[in-house]
UniProtKB/TrEMBL annotation, chain A:
Name this protein carries in UniProt: Macrolide export ATP-binding/permease protein MacB
GO terms for cellular component: membrane protein complex; plasma membrane
Organism this protein belongs to: Methanoculleus chikugoensis
PANTHER family per UniProt: ABC TRANSPORTER ABCH.1 (PTHR24220:SF86), IMPORT ATP-BINDING PROTEIN (PTHR24220)
Residues in ABC transporter domain copies: 7-224
The organism's taxonomic lineage, starting at the top: Archaea, Methanobacteriati, Methanobacteriota, Stenosarchaea group, Methanomicrobia
UniProtKB/TrEMBL annotation, chain B:
Keywords assigned by UniProt, alphabetized: ATP-binding, Cell membrane, Hydrolase, Membrane, Nucleotide-binding, Transmembrane, Transmembrane helix
The MacB-like periplasmic core domain, residue ranges: 17-231
Compartments in which it is found: Cell membrane
Documented EC number(s): 3.6.3.-
Membrane topology: Multi-pass membrane protein
The species this protein was found in: Methanoculleus chikugoensis
Gene field: macB_6
The protein's name: Macrolide export ATP-binding/permease protein MacB
Stored InterPro entries: ABC3_permease_C (IPR003838), MacB_PCD (IPR025857), Macrolide_Exporter_MacB (IPR050250)
Family label: Belongs to the ABC-4 integral membrane protein family.
GO cellular component terms attached to this protein's record: plasma membrane
Residue span, ABC3 transporter permease C-terminal domain: 266-391
């Protein structure tokens, strides 16, 4: 892959001030993610891997250091600009699926698109993406509560893909699924990676990490 | 999109939504119908009060002067002696000066019915100047007789030619007076008017008067007449209070305005309670959806879009509550006012053809509705703002 990295961390620290003393979640982390990579971030609980993913996803800003998303430094950006970055360039997949319970499956998927454009072409695009992750048409109008865990995670992946982002960030995407369903979800992510999407995934399951082509280990807030 | 979010969420928690709508409805109804009620009291007062725009009333000076007509604190046993009446007459010349005698006695109305009534003594020549006759004739000089106020006459079935007994003394009724309403000078509708001569001989000669009325033909001359009386009688010390009907009308209006304000205040309290309720509902709604808000923010919803979504909820609650409240208060305000007027004007004709709804009554309803919507938005704003300013990471960490 040529050109600049899609993500670059330079001496990034994240410190949570607590009454009992500051907690250093990330300690001067430097790393790069190139376009098209499939990376697994592994490490014990509390090692700072979720903090790393949140910073990658512009959900949080570092205490010190610089984060470049396609060469753009994010720590000085306004909340609105960060929000637009998340909306247009990043797709999130969570362990808890995090679908909006009030909305049907297809409405969940089209939500980021409606935020960007209008409603008109959103529905068609949403359906297209949902079919791509092998969701049955009959499930489109179901509420999240009426879907199985695997189905919910497919809806969540479809939602993450609907705006055609460069970067797919997954936090324990199979953590709440049985191994068979988990494998199916991983196949979808691997297929997206083959299509050119950059995927960064936090996991502590070595079997899941095996789908990735590179593994970053985090221990005590440092890249090991 | 966000609007449909708001409606879905309100429907999801429909009991909570309904309760907060009820709260707003109560607030709006309270403020609007109390406003309508206060307004109709005002209208009614304006309708009942006889507009005697050309009258100056002179009363004995009391220590607590300058309050309002009928203030019980001013009801002291004081009178204007005849010699001062003559002074007033000279000061007010060429306008007509009418000394008034007033007392009360037991009256037998025939058919075994009796009760206390106000007795007003006037010089027979002055009576046509002040009062109109509905039926019968005015009193003639040196003739015993009485004129009966119309409500008294109706209540006891008295007509010209009837005989009544005032304090045991038999009198023939010469006429029934026309309805006059609440006046600033005398209120004859429930009284009996007799000649001053008869009054003095009946109650014992008492050449002093609780009130002197000066009839000024030209309203522009009122101030001059008042000044003339003041400077003549109150030269050394304040012996009399001089007031005119415009002044007293102003005082009445002030009182009614106070009543209206008071009623609006009660309505306002109700609306504040409703606002706290909305605040509470919105706050709960935000709190239990923190995680959901975090998710929306993480997948690209802007702060102002989250703010908009929650404000829509508050506005929907406010608009529904205010419209329902507006309709109900139109109905309630009407019923309350009609009932109040019926009580206030019982036995009179003032309630007839009286409309409760004028421009300002409609104004009160519109004001109540606007206040309801405004309060909802204000109460919804803080929780909405809070929701939009949650950091997405922190919000999603909430269970």
């Amino acid at each position: 892959m040529s050109g600049e990295p899609i993500l670059r961390f330079a001496e990034v620290s994240k410190i949570y001030p607590l009454p009992a003393g500051d907690v250093v979640a990330l300690d001067r982390v430097t790393l790069t993610v190139d376009p098209g990579e499939f990376i697994a971030v592994m490490g014990p609980s509390g090692s700072g891997k979720s903090t790393l993913l949140n910073l990658m996803g512009c959900l949080d800003v570092p205490t010190s250091g610089e984060i470049y998303l396609s060469g753009q430094e994010i720590s000085q950006m306004s909340d609105d600009d960060l929000t637009r970055l998340r909306r247009d360039r990043i797709g999130f997949v969570f362990q808890q699926f995090n679908l909006i319970p009030l909305l049907s499956a297809v409405e969940n998927v089209e939500f980021p698109l409606v935020l960007t454009a209008g409603r008109e072409e959103s529905r068609l695009r949403a359906i297209e993406v949902m079919r791509a992750v092998h969701l049955n048409d009959a499930l489109f109008t179901h509420r999240p509560a009426e879907l199985s865990g695997g189905e919910q995670q497919r809806v969540a992946i479809a939602r993450a893909l609907v705006n055609d982002p460069d970067l797919l960030l997954c936090d324990e995407p199979t953590g709440n699924l049985d191994s068979k369903t988990g494998s199916a979800i991983m196949e979808i992510l691997a297929a997206e990676n083959r299509e050119g999407k950059t995927v960064v995934m936090v996991t502590h399951d070595p079997g899941v990490a095996a789908y990735a082509r590179r593994t970053i280990r985090i221990v005590d807030g440092r890249v090991a | 999109m966000f609007f449909s979010f708001a409606t879905r969420n309100l429907r999801r928690h429909w009991i909570r939504s309904a309760l907060s709508i009820i709260g707003i409805v109560i607030g709006v109804v309270a403020i609007a119908s109390l406003g309508v009620m206060g307004n109709s009291i005002n209208l009614l007062a304006a309708n009942i009060i006889t507009d005697v725009g050309d009258t100056v009333v002179v009363t004995p000076h009391t220590a607590i002067g300058g309050t309002f007509a009928g203030d019980p604190r001013t009801t002291v046993d004081a009178a204007i002696p005849a010699r001062e009446v003559e002074e007033i007459r000279r000061a007010a010349n060429p306008h007509r000066t009418i000394p008034v005698l007033q007392g009360a006695d037991e009256v037998e109305f025939g058919r075994g019915e009796s009760g206390y009534a106000r007795i007003i003594g006037l010089e027979p020549g002055d009576i046509p100047v002040l009062l109109d006759i509905a039926d019968g004739q005015h009193l003639r000089q040196n003739q015993a007789g009485a004129l009966v106020g119309i409500h008294l006459a109706r209540e006891y079935g008295i007509s010209p030619g009837s005989r009544i007994a005032i304090g045991g003394e038999d009198v023939r009724v010469a006429g029934v007076l026309a309805e006059r309403g609440m006046g600033f000078d005398i209120n004859p509708d429930y009284a009996i008017v007799v000649s001053d001569g008869w009054y003095e001989s009946h109650f014992g000669a008492k050449a002093s008067y609780p009130m002197v009325i000066v009839r000024v033909g030209d309203p522009d001359a009122i101030d001059a007449v008042k000044d003339a009386i003041e400077s003549r009688i109150n030269r050394r010390e304040d012996l009399v209070d001089v007031s005119d009907s415009r002044e007293m009308l102003g005082q009445y209006e002030e009182i009614y305005d106070q009543i209206t304000l008071f009623l609006l205040g009660i309505g306002g309290i109700a609306l504040v309670v409703a606002a706290v309720n909305i605040l509470n509902v919105m706050y709960i709604s935000v709190t239990e959806r923190i995680r959901e808000i975090g998710v929306m923010r993480s997948i690209g919803a802007l702060r102002r879009e989250i703010l908009r979504m929650f404000l829509y909820e508050a506005v929907i609650l406010g608009v529904i509550g205010s419209v329902v409240g507006g309709l109900l208060s139109t109905a309630f305000g009407y019923l309350i006012s009609v009932a109040a007027i019926e009580v206030a004007t019982a036995g009179t004709t003032f309630g007839e053809n009286f409309t409760v709804f004028d421009q300002s009554a409609v104004g009160f309803i519109v004001f109540g509705m606007a206040f309801g919507i405004g309060t909802s938005i204000v109460a919804g704003f803080y929780p909405a703002w809070r929701a939009s300013h949650l950091a997405p990471v922190d919000a999603m960490r909430q269970k």
